[in-house]
Structures are given as structure tokens and as C-alpha cells.
Write a structure and sequence with these properties.
Layout lengths: L2 H23 L2 E2 L5 E2 L2 H31 L3 H22 L6 H26 L10 H24 L1 H8 L6
Antiparallel strand pairs: 1-2
Helix pairs in contact: 1-2, 2-3, 2-5, 3-4, 4-5
Length: about 180
Amino acid sequence: MGDKKILKLVIAAMFASLVCVATMVIKIPTPTNGYVNLGDCIVLLSGWLLGPVYGVAAAAIGSMLADLFAGYPVYAAATFVIKGAVALIAWLIFGRKSRGAVLAVVSAVCAEAFMAFAYFVFEWLLMGQGISAAAGIPANLVQGLIGAVLALILLKLFTGSKALSEFFETFKKKN
């Protein structure tokens, strides 16, 4: 395994750890047995900065571990899929080459709207909560909004730094 691949794995593992910690540090319970947290900030950054492979893996694994560690194992598999998809949607819209602020905002809004919808569907259909699962939508949207705003601020800081910007460009290159 080449040095660049090892570096990418280490950075992805660090992002997974950040997602897990950011998810667990502030937990505000919601009516649907979930909780509002700051993990979405790092989930979005994972997608934007690390791309579709490492970013999705970091977002999915870190979020799933947070559910397991926080005592929400019933959500772990769904969270793995949903948060991985959030990072992927963010990356797909933000793009490989076009890194404008408007695309970052659009990608965050679309990804977080998906997150709120996906948890609603999971709780409604698979958890058997019926339409009462809609009670969690506002909390998930607030979580998504807070995460998006923080992620956009951090993205601006990261891309404003030449060294960090060049570093994250390595995730777009093969090897």
C-alpha cells in the first residue's frame, strides 16, 4: 500500500472519529427516540473534502459508531446508510472541480433534506411508528441546518488555507 493511500486511510479514520465525537458531545433528545447533534457538520465536510470513497466511509462509520456507543443500536444500520448517503449527496452536488459557495450551500441543503426524509421513512416504515414519525422531522431539519452552517464556515476556513486546500486535493487524485 502506497504512502498516499495510508495517509488517506488515516485522515478518513480521523474524520470518522470526529463524526463520532461531534455526534456524541451534544445530544438533545427528540420525540422519536433520536437526538439532535453536531455530527452532520463533519459528515458534510467528509463528503466535500474526502470524496465519495473515503468521505462516505468516514461519515457512515463515524455516525454508526456514535449510535452504537450512545445506546441507539436500533438506528445503527440505518444511520450507516443515511449518513453515508448524506456525504455522497454533498459530494455529488459540490462536484470534483466546481467548488463554489453556492454549490456548497445547495449540496448541504439537499443532503440534509435527504437526511430528514430518510430518518422519517425509516422510523415510519421500519420502526413502525407510523405517521407519528413526522414529529422527528423538525428536529432533524434543525440538526441539518446547524450542521450545514458550521460545515460551510469550516469549509471556507479550510479552502481559504492554501496548505489545507492543497492537502485535500490529494483525495481527488488516484493513489
